[in-house]
């Protein structure tokens, strides 16, 4: 009833035309042309374009772009549909399921299917193209942090396929291109829902939204500004480049609130907020100007809680931002021993200005509120000094947010040298001097293959064993003790010391997945995630 045009007309006095596409917008005469069975002209005072997400089959071989390729192919557009899918699979006795790709929705689908006792395989990309070469799941996180999620998946028997592609689909299996391996798949669940309503795929009927307005070069009407043939460019008031034409929803590209340039991303602003801001702007009811905000994105996989906000390192590199990072792993303070878990916190900030750019946090405990603090700082264009002041005012100096702030300020002020844990394999292969200041027991349980162990409590007596005339890279379990060790050795005349950020605990996660899935030489004698 609620989708019946007659019902809408009677109840809300709203005219609805189904099965129409916009053919052309004439913003000078304020007319819009629709295509139905014929071209229809209609006047407007304000035109608001709202386009939802739709399936993007570009990750599949071209012959499957026209959609659904097989009878066992299932498209999931939102999280609410997962429950229905599991009920259907149980009814049909479907056990082996392939999920494509490894985006946020794909991860949620894989988790729910695994917990429902399905045999789940997760393929990051279905087909190799020049623009879609990606060997990690969930692009929002950086490669080093994503390794923790990789481990969480394989610990729960989700087969993760990153460096291979689907070449053939069958009723009960798929075939991979590179390895020529066959994977059982009674069902294929596809979750690549795109924000681009303007992409035309090969072998697909061209009936795209606003096709004429965007692609017809002979048109005398002003063109709607589109970013990379994907999203409608709007300002902070959701106004397009055409007079009195607005756009909302996931088809838009907003200016990024953290930097002067712009960034394409799925809009995290809620549709309700967009509508309110848009109408307030049109009818001039704003109490204050609209502000584009960054929001904390949070989800729980199996054992891990994941939260992130702002830019990641890869995005900073692509935007040519000179940035630095602070990576700390303090233990959560709680009277409940089960809640005393490490919190892996990576803070990204601009080097020169100390402006906060983003954060990624992973832990077995709930950490959303920690990242909310960083989100608040980003939305206020805050610096590390502002964050330090905030932590002091809110008594967070000993909280993980306060700890990462102190470390970030030390890194920014160049108070000590540091190198990321991602470089340790290179250090091992080049036979650099790596000093492990953990206890003998921890060292004997697992260590870097050529690391020298001098426990911290013995370091003051054995410092002569540490060379002064070659680089020395120091690590402990989480990075805190190694930092203290560096400060102590500097007082003893050492100036060749570098702290390994993330230290041994993060290194275990970073090495684990690739060690398990490839034949490469291991640089750890064993793994220790405690």
Name of the CATH first level of the largest domain: Alpha Beta
Mean pLDDT figure:
82
β-sheet strand percentage = 15-25%
- What does the oligomeric state look like here? single chain
Give a quick precis of the structure.
With 530 residues, this protein is α/β, with parallel strands linked by helices.
Keywords:
single chain, 530 residues, FAD/NAD(P)-binding domain, Enolase-like, domain 1, 5-stranded antiparallel beta sheet
Strand and helix map with partners:
Elements: H1 5-12, E1 21-26, E2 31-35, E3 39-43, E4 47-51, E5 54-55, E6 73-75, H2 81-91, E7 96-100, H3 104-115, E8 119-123, H4 143-155, E9 159-161, E10 166-169, E11 173-176, E12 182-184, E13 187-190, E14 193-194, H5 211-215, E15 226-227, E16 231-233, E17 245-249, E18 252-253, H6 271-282, E19 297-300, E20 305-310, H7 313-318, E21 323-328, E22 343-350, E23 356-363, H8 368-379, H9 384-393, H10 400-412, E24 417-420, H11 424-429, E25 433-436, H12 440-445, E26 452-453, H13 456-462, E27 472-475, H14 480-491, E28 497-501, H15 503-517
Parallel strand pairs: 4-17, 6-13, 7-8, 7-13, 8-9, 16-18, 24-28, 25-26, 25-27, 27-28
Antiparallel strand pairs: 1-2, 2-3, 5-14, 10-11, 11-12, 15-16, 19-20, 20-23, 21-22, 22-23
Helix pairs in contact: 4-15, 9-10
Your description of this structure?
GO terms for molecular function: oxidoreductase activity. The protein is α/β, with parallel strands linked by helices and about 525 residues long. It has 4 domains: about 20-50 and about 200-280, 3-Layer(bba) Sandwich (FAD/NAD(P)-binding domain); about 55-195, FAD/NAD(P)-binding domain, CATH 3.50.50; about 295-415, FAD/NAD-linked reductase, C-terminal dimerisation domain (Enolase-like, domain 1), CATH 3.30.390; about 420-515, Rhodanese-like domain (Oxidized Rhodanese, domain 1, 3-Layer(aba) Sandwich). Strands 6-13-7-8-9 form a 5-stranded parallel β-sheet. Strands 19-20-23-22-21 form a 5-stranded antiparallel β-sheet. α12 links the parallel β25 (about 435) and β26. α4 (about 145-155) crosses α15 (about 505-515) and α9 (about 385-395) packs antiparallel against α10. The longest helix is centred in the last third of the chain and has 15 residues, at about 505-515. The protein is globular. The protein starts with a helix and ends in a 13-residue tail after the last helix. Mean pLDDT is about 80; it is low at about 125-135, about 195-220 and about 260-270.
